[in-house]
Amino acid sequence: MTVAEARSNLNNDKYKQTFSMLYPSSDYERQKERYLNALDHFKNAYHPEDDAQITILSAPGRTEIAGNHTYHQHGCFVAASVNYDVIGVVAKSEGAAQIKSEGYPEDRIALDDLSIIPAEINTSAALIRGIMAYFDHKRYNVGGFVAYTTSEVLKGSGLSSSA
């Protein structure tokens, strides 16, 4: 969909049924505004044309009910998603992966060098670079993109494993 279509669909309640699967019905108007604000911030950060193709994503927070962290050793666990999520607005671009998360500086990863950069260890940039390197290693088509994200998953709450 385009930026203009996303805005129109949100303003015309086209996503109301989809939102009802993600959020409590009493939260619809607030979530709609949240998505419209994310579109605005995406436009301010990356200046796409109204006909630019975008994807809007939601990644729920997650809590482990049983078997906390056993999946790291291929063990069994029971997890549940919560209605706090990270949403993102994403578009393809050339040459780099750029992610601007609300309240944080932008991370920019050049795709011509996906090797480990010691100065990035323990940063978001290192995580992004590592994921891109893994995709490249698995021979997936790795390309540039721009993304704006905003999160309601509480930092440090233990709910953010999948978000």
Major sheet characteristics: 5 strands, mixed
Strand content: 25-35%
Count of beta strands: 5
Distance between the termini: 23 Å
Model regions low in confidence, pLDDT < 50 over at least 5 residues: none
Spatial order of the strands in the main sheet? 1-2-5-3-4
Structural class: alpha+beta
- Written as H for each helix and E for each strand, in order along the chain, the element string is HHHEEEEHE
Classify the helix fraction into a percent range: 25-40%
Radius of gyration, rounded?
Answer: 17 Å
Tertiary shape: globular
The helix tally amounts to 4
- The chain-level mean pLDDT equals 90
Please, could you describe this protein's structure?
The chain has 163 residues and is of the alpha+beta class. The protein contains 4 helices and 5 strands; from the N terminus they run αααββββαβ. A 5-stranded mixed β-sheet has the order 1-2-5-3-4, sandwiched between helices. A hairpin with a 5-residue loop joins strand 3 and strand 4. Helix 1 runs antiparallel to helix 3. It is globular, with a radius of gyration of 17 Å. The protein starts with a helix and ends in a 12-residue tail after the last strand. The mean pLDDT is 90.
Question: Which terms summarize this structure?
Answer:
about 30% helix, alpha+beta, about 160 residues, 5-stranded mixed β-sheet, single chain
Brief write-up:
This protein is of the alpha+beta class.
Topology readout:
Elements lengths: L2 H9 L4 H7 L5 H19 L8 E12 L11 E16 L2 E6 L5 E4 L13 H14 L6 E8 L12
Parallel strand pairs: 3-5
Antiparallel strand pairs: 1-2, 2-5, 3-4
Helix pairs in contact: 1-3
